[in-house]
Amino acid sequence: MTFERKRIGIVCPYGWDTPGGVQAHIADLATYLISQGHFVSVLAPTSDEDGLPDYVVSAGKPIAIPYNGAVARILFGPIAFARVRQWIAQGEFDLLHLHEPAIPSISLLACFAAEGPLVGTFHASAKKQKAIFAIGPILEPVIEKLTARIAVSEAARSTLTEHLETDAVVVPNGIYARRLASGAINPQWTGNTIGFIGRFAEPRKGLNVLVQALPSIIAEIPDVSVLVAGPGDADEFLETVPQNLRNRFTFLGRITEKEKADFLHSIGLYVAPNTGGESFGIILAEALAGGAAVVASDIPAFKALLGEGRYGSLFRSEDPQSLASSIVTILQDSQLREKFRSEGKVYAQSFDWDVVAERIYDVYEMAMVGLGKVTLSSENRGWNKFLGK
User: Fold this and answer.
1) For residue 133, is pLDDT > 50?
2) What is the Cα gyration radius of the chain?
3) 2 lies in a domain?
4) pLDDT tens for each residue of 181-203
5) Quick check: helix, strand or coil at residue 37?
6) Which of 5, 136, 257, 296 has a CA positioned 20 to 30 A from the CA of residue 111?
7) What count of other Cβ atoms lies within 10 Å of the Cβ of residue 120?
8) Do the strands 63-67 and 70-74 form a parallel or antiparallel pair, or are they unpaired?
């Protein structure tokens, strides 16, 4: 840590109790900052206030909207704006860190409501969204209020540049690399196993591409099986899988962080067949840290994270035969598999929170130069301006 202890407010745009990469990133960042002695308060939409971490403040219940190939649970409107203002007024923050401030969410509302050191982190990598076009005229002055901007990847930075004609420093998502590297072998997960972690029912996660690739994989590796961890209705998903392939799948449900480390250390390889909508791919960084050989689609974010194929095997996105070929090669070539595992594990240390947090601290320091504490904007300059009054 390179600066004195601060009061930091972080705004999460998405429903806290819904699993997602942004929520996980914010939780890890908040936990790390607290461990370094900072006061941290996270404002987030929540469906249920029971069991929230001490550092999370509920902004109210989110609503579901389609966004970036998935369903985003966000909160927006006058009542939410009042809650945001109250949180800012009571927080006495030295800095606000707003995640995804360019979408209709409490992050955008906080950008309206606040003055002072404001840092925005942009996670999304996507084609132009209707939501962005709908509020386009008001985004430019909002983004200009940010004293510093972070993009989690070059793909996210490109999206920001294309949509909003502004730039950002690239700081990747953080992971607890050392913790993931300490996994133990679980014999139930070893062998010719293909591992996957995530919301498997979402089409953009690409598990249907793996289903289509399986017959070709089985022809070369008859005992191959697929282990799926993460939230979703397994029975509903299996209805989309041919009858003769269903017994190849084992669904583990949500797993703990310890189980994740064991999972990544045990499986034959990790597959990420995503078809798009990813700006970083934190699960790939975690898979590398856990010692898994990785096979991933060649979408821009994954290509960049895997060093254009240096740290994992890339296949043509949405091409089942290309995926099958990559999986068969990795499972049959133990030397190549071990090379990806060992080199990937070392490379993943660059995403450890000890490294990433220092880079975020640097941005915080830059954002606070010459500015006092966070204060409230006048309401007329905030919400009323948004309403066009």
Assistant:
1) no
2) 21
3) no
4) 999 999 999 999 999 999 898 88
5) coil
6) 5
7) 29
8) antiparallel
